[in-house]
UniProtKB/TrEMBL annotation:
It comes from Alkaliphilus pronyensis. GO terms for cellular component: cytoplasm. NCBIfam families: GTPase_YlqF. This is Ribosome biogenesis GTPase A. Belongs to the TRAFAC class YlqF/YawG GTPase family. MTG1 subfamily. Residues 13-178 form the CP-type G domain.
Length: 285
């Protein structure tokens, strides 16, 4: 894990976040569209309590559209708006901001009725490492962004970024921890690159990924690496990929490390295809 989470650290993060959330009207919860369940913080509901939130299914460009739609419906059935986004191109961000304003409309109107001065809607981005928080903040801030200065009660140095409409975004995201004690979750986080340090050696990780992808998308592997058919086992498939890519070392032996890196890189960048690794119906209740 690239962050050394331990109970003390988690407790401190949780308390700090709860403190910051007092200033926030809407939480933007970023998830990886390929693994919305595994990229979720296990305590998020308790942390944000009753705050309105918008779920952002980021990296939607790397996920399967049909499965992303089933996640959107899943969230809708639970009373939450989930929006697919590609932060690199900005696709979906307009809808995110509109939804952000909508979910607090009533609250803001109620404040106005009480005679409070009108103010911007304050947003905070939260999510696990590598889910795209900084990229999204930068994208939203753009060139035209104006920083609106420190607000009391927020850790020194934090700034508010003025966005389109009547919105303000905290420039520092809340970094949350994933449910890393669950092996299946850890594996999916490693596949997508959310866990940088190896939870297992890279060759085994690539073999597990081949196994996962082969279950429903063997055609994508066959196409990408020009294989007539995938192998009978993940190892055989890996060897076929190695031959296709010329990953052979002296003496004709297969360079498993290089092959594993190619497979993982090409999955992570979407080159093998848009492959989601979990569906709402997979969630263990
Ligand atoms: N394909 C794709 N890549 C994305 C998207 N959003 C972010 N990325 C990439 O994901 C990687 C991680 O993005 P960051 O913005 O650094 O993520 P972060 O959540 O701020 O990460 P931490 O600083 O570790 O907490 C970068 O390589 C981004 O370019 C997206 O919508 N699509």
């Amino acid at each position: 894990m690239n962050i050394n989470w331990f109970p003390g650290h988690m407790k401190k993060t949780r308390e700090l976040l709860k403190e910051q959330l007092k200033l926030i009207d809407v939480v933007f919860e970023l998830l990886d569209a390929r693994i919305p369940f595994s990229s979720k913080n296990p305590e998020i509901n308790e942390i944000i309590a009753n705050k309105p939130r918008v779920v952002i299914l980021n990296k939607a460009d790397l996920a399967d559209d049909d499965i992303t739609n089933s996640w959107i419906n899943y969230y809708k059935n639970n009373g939450v708006s989930a929006i697919p986004v590609n932060t690199i191109t900005g696709k979906g961000l307009k809808q995110v901001l509109q939804t952000g304003e909508e979910v607090v409309k009533e609250k803001m109107q109620a404040l106005k009725r009480k005679g409070r001065r009108e103010r911007a809607v304050r947003i905070m981005m939260v999510g696990i490492p590598n889910v795209g928080k900084s990229s999204m903040i930068n994208r939203l801030a753009g060139k035209k962004s104006a920083q609106t200065g420190d607000k009391p009660g927020v850790t020194k140095g934090k700034q508010w970024i003025r966005l389109k409409g009547n919105l303000e975004l905290l420039d520092t995201p809340g970094i949350l921890w994933p449910k890393f004690e669950d092996q299946e979750v850890a594996l999916k986080l490693a596949f997508t690159g959310a866990i940088k340090d190896q939870i297992m050696d890279i060759e085994t990780l690539a073999l597990k990924l081949i196994e996962h992808i082969s279950l429903q998308h063997s055609d994508l592997i066959e196409e990408r690496y020009s294989l007539g058919n995938i192998g009978e086992s993940p190892l055989e498939t890996m060897e076929l990929v190695a031959k296709n890519r010329g990953c052979i070392i002296k003496g004709g032996e297969i360079d498993y490390t290089r092959t594993a890196n190619i497979i993982l890189d090409e999955y992570r960048s979407g080159k093998i295809g848009r492959i989601s690794l979990e569906k709402p119906c997979d969630i263990k209740k």
